[in-house]
Amino acid sequence: MTPEVDTGTEIDGRYRILNRIGSGGMADVYLAEDSHLGRQVALKVLHRRFAQDSEFVERFRREASSAAGLQHPNVVNVFDRGDHDGTYYIAMEYLDGRTLKDVLSQDGPLDQTRAIDIALQVLQAAAFAHRRGVIHRDFKPHNVMLDSADGVKVTDFGIARAGASEMTETGSIMGTAQYLSPEQAQGHAVTAASDLYSIGVMLYEMVAGRLPFTGDTAVSIALHHMNDPPPPIRDARPDVNPSLEAVIARALAKDPAQRFGDADEFTAALLEARNAIAEGHEVGENTAVWGAAFPPEEAVEEVAPKKRRRFMWLIPVILILGALGLAYALTRPDTAEVPNVVRQPEAAARVTLEKAGFEVAVTRAADRAVPAGQVISTDPAAGEDADKGAKVNVSVSSGPEARTIPRVSGQSAREAERELIKAGFTVERGDDRSSTDRKRGEVIYTTPRAGQEAPVGSRVVFYVSSGPPQVTVPDVVGVTEGSAESQLGDEGLLVARKEMDSDQPEGTVIAQDPAAGEKIDKGSRVTITVSKGEQPVDVPDVEGIEEDRARSQLSGAGFKVRVIERSTFDEAEDGVVIEQRPASGQERTKGATVTIFVGALDTSSDPVEPEIP
Question: Any alpha helices (H) in 429-519, and if so which ranges?
Fold first, then answer.
């Protein structure tokens, strides 16, 4: 397909197109150079055939608005938007990396821990957007960018929904079929739970190396999402940890109410699965995996007929014992064994206990070992007998205890690590980053951000300043003061100014410090020396002093000296300046000539007045 914007085109007087890097159904994406800020950006340009469609233009405009309001380490930054040549563009952060789809094509299936770490970062972006009322609606590997260290950036909020606004008519479908939630496939209202389903599909694909549902058409795939359970992951990945398989199964529940309550709950469950994998734990035989059918009731064993007793004398004894047993049965309370519901989801546990004849009272407690929403324990415990109708207290996990991430910006790496560990988090140091706000060695920020809540034991990454970015000092000697300030400002440098008399034109830069070509921190100060031009100075008074002293004083003041001898009959004037032109006190520019008349003793009898040239 021929690009709609040619290489070298300058858009909006600022963005010069370098090459096309991608194309989608709505727009092309180009690599461009931002001439104002001297950086590369990704420029998304709406296809011209859609530029006259108000719905597409509104969707495109909303993408910029939605994404621009989501300033988060795991969301691509949007810098600018505008129009060009009858269509519209968005200027975004340029990401030098691969899409998750590329990674899956080349590396899939992924290591389970790696898949979890990628999904956790996607969930961080989703949680941030959902808290601000923005639903992405099209989570898929194509919209997830990874850098060389598997750092995640979520892109393309082109069909995001903010608040109650809808861009489609009733019954229409938006999104990509392979990652579509059942409610989207039916054209129903889309909520944050729909995004969690799509992320669950992505996680399934990362772990299994294949999609849960495929088909010849988008409609057939959508029908699978609506009606069919996903194939067990262990069919494609026998080594999958059951705890991770259970998390994915819950995320792919057909009913949105049966999925995780929000992205944070999904995150907590994944962190527990990662811990289970790291510690080599598996789900026990009695663990209820979300979405799995309840085990069938035990078959009733047939009781074989009792053998005929040989000794008839035992009959009276049996009758007496039977009567006693009947009396006990008629008077004792009706009891039942408390079923084992530990590790079952709350809803499933409630059904099991009520079916056994018990009332259920639920309390919640933080627990790192048990995923959120699953039963930790019961009182009475499983296997104990209890009166039917009695209350069974069920303790349900709320997931790991959540704590507020402390603010460590401005601290040293060691101080920040100590404080984060003290707060209960697993700490990781990210790649150092340049910063104009923090000194070298100081922490810039954390991911997740300070002030947010995160499960105890979850990973917090902190980033340390490598100092301001380095820039090369431009050569501004010989240019005007205004041009020098503009060039230095474009490099992010501050300008200090001083003046000096010079034979250069007034306002010309005659010196700079640091010199051109030196590498210095962005934000540093460069001092420029600006010419004041040639300034007049007073001519010194040298009349009445010897010629040598007069020459010295005039030269020191910056003047050239011309000497003319004048005959004199006065011995006191011999070798002494009799007159000077211009006279003392008059102003002349440096470099001008001052003529001095020096007396020369005339010893002849008839003095003659010398002619003044």
Answer: 481-490
With CA atoms as reference, report the closest residue to 143 among 107, 98, 111, 173. Answer: 98
Residue 86 has pLDDT above 80, yes or no: no
How confident is the model over 372-420, as pLDDT tens digits?
A: 788 999 999 988 989 989 999 999 987 777 889 999 999 999 999 999 9
Q: Confirm if 2 and 20 have CB atoms less than 8 A apart.
A: no
Within 10 A of 538 (CB to CB), how many other CB atoms are there? 11
Q: pLDDT digits over 31-46, tens only?
A: 999 988 888 998 988 8
Closest CA to 288 of 396, 402, 400, 398: 396
What is the distance, to the nearest Å, from the Cα of residue 184 to the centroid of all Cα atoms in its chain?
Answer: 28
Confidence class of residue 237 from pLDDT cuts 50, 70 and 90? very high
Task: Quote the CA–CA distance of 264 and 128 in Å, as a whole number.
Answer: 10
Task: Please give the Cα distance from 433 to 468 (Å, whole number).
Answer: 9
CA distance 267 to 269: 5
Residue 69 backbone phi and psi in degrees, to 5: -85, 0
* Least confident window among 5-9, 55-59, 532-536: 55-59
Using CA atoms, how far apart are residues 420 and 345, in angstroms rounded to an integer?
32
With a CB cutoff of 8 Å and minimum separation 6, the contacts of 142 are: 99, 100, 101, 156, 176
User: Can you spell out the DSSP letters for 315-368?
Assistant: HHHHHHHHHHHHHHHHHSPPEEEPP--TTSBHHHHHHHHHHTT-EEEEEEE--S
Element (H, E) at 55: helix 54-68
Residue 429, token pair as written in the block: 């140091």
**Burial degree of 477 (CB within 10 A; 0-12, 13-18, 19+):** middle
pTM: 0.47
Spell out the domains of the chain, with CATH numbers in brackets. 340-397 (3.30.10.20), 402-464 (3.30.10.20), 470-531 (3.30.10.20), 536-601 (3.30.10.20)
Q: What is the DSSP letter of 436?
A: S
DSSP-assigned letters across all residues of 544-586 = TSBHHHHHHHHHHTT-EEEEEEEEES-GGGBTBEEEEESPTT-
Shortest CA distance to 399 belongs to which of 449, 349, 448, 346?
346
Predicted confidence at residue 219, as pLDDT, reads 85
* Cα–Cα dist 445/439, whole Å: 13
Pick from 15, 153, 136, 141: which is nearest to 97 by CA? 153
Q: Report d(CA 209, CA 268) in Å as an integer.
A: 24
User: 123: closest CA among 71, 196, 209?
Assistant: 196
Q: For residues 447, 452, 458 and 463, what is the CA-based torsion angle, rounded to 10 degrees?
A: 20
Position 21 pLDDT exceeds 90 = no
Question: What span, in angstroms and rounded, lies between the C-alpha atoms of 294 and 286?
Answer: 11
User: Strands (DSSP E) along 196-340, which ranges?
Assistant: 335-337
Q: How many CB atoms lie within 10 A of CB 221?
A: 21
Contact between 274 and 116 under an 8 Å Cβ cutoff? The reply is yes
Tokens matching residue 403: 């704590």
In the DSSP assignment, the letter for residue 605 is S
Catalytic residues, by residue number, are 138
Chain segment 135-183, per-residue pLDDT in tens? 888 899 998 999 888 899 998 764 444 333 333 333 334 457 899 999 9
Report CA 411 to chain centroid distance, whole Å: 20
Which pLDDT score, from 0 to 100, does residue 349 have? 87
